[in-house]
Amino acid sequence: MAQVVRFYETGGPEVLRFEEVEVGDPGPGEVRLRHVAVGLNYADTYFRNGTYPIPMPNGMGVEAAGIVAAVGEGVSHVAVGDRVTYTGFLNTLGAYSTERLISAAPLIKLPESISFETAAAMTMRGLTSAYLMRRIHDFKPGDSILLHAAAGGVGLIVSQWAKLLGLKVIGTVSSDAKAEVARTHGCDHVINYSHEDVAKRVRELTDNVGVNVVFDSVGQSTFMGSLDSLKRRGLMVCVGTASGPIPAFNPALLAMKGSLFMTRPALADYIADPAEKADLAGELFDLVGSGRIKIEINQHYSLQDAVQAHRDLESRKTTGSSIFVI
Predict the structure, then answer these.
(1) In order of start, what are the domains of the chain with their CATH numbers?
(2) Using CA atoms in the order 326, 2, 112, 299, what is the torsion angle rounded to 10 degrees?
(3) How far does Cα 281 stand from its chain's mean position?
(4) Which domain of life is it from (predicted)?
(5) β-strands 144-147, 83-87: how paired?
(6) What does pTM read for this prediction?
(7) Each residue of 43-60: pLDDT tens digit?
């Protein structure tokens, strides 16, 4: 029997249930995967609270790493015994489990240089960071970015990657402890938004010019400050809504604030093409495997602790990446 976390209604962390289920044999195009480590992502809370509507009941989690235990008919790019990782969206729901059936399509083979724990902590965050750094904007050395949630899982990877590209990184955090974490991972300047005006401070740090790009994973509470932090014709990248959805606005606002550009990207659209996914994963694995980017796993949970894990995540108690260890 496999152990899984499921939920039967949307709501707070308390709706998560720890259960045992029979996995069965893989069908055509599927594999049975034995998990070693499972990722905890803020996106998980969006499924749980109904922000991302899905049929009920359902499994929780979209990212994990493990070993292929059995393959179904037609599966050729992975084999029994392969070390793999995966991330996705609706096609990978159910990652909070010790063992599962899953389509073979999202699976990515892991190089020996990447542990299961590291893979579970970084596949979604790392591929997100990869497309933010390599696909969203044509960065040049000396460009500047404002990075919200700089001490979070994506933030720590993006800040390190940005420094490898020669960028100036201004990060925002909610506490002095997180500020120190952000500094040690590449942020040139850190703004504690609990008591500092972000846009005002960004203007001071950029000689009143503003930054080239803002990566905003917070949403509602930071949106206007993010726009006010951009230089003329800068790019606003909305990558999350941790504080709530961005309020409706007239697009003329972008013209009024300097002919700004704005995008709301999704990882799924940057890994839909297998060749592009392979390119992004290859570069990510190379940077992490060589030690040029370090993955910080600062919280470890068991699947039985899923409720507490979600509470910690939503109360901003976590830094870096969090995983469930099987």
Answers:
(1) 2-125+294-325 (3.90.180.10), 137-264 (3.40.50.720)
(2) -20
(3) 14
(4) Bacteria
(5) unpaired
(6) 0.91
(7) 899 999 999 999 999 999
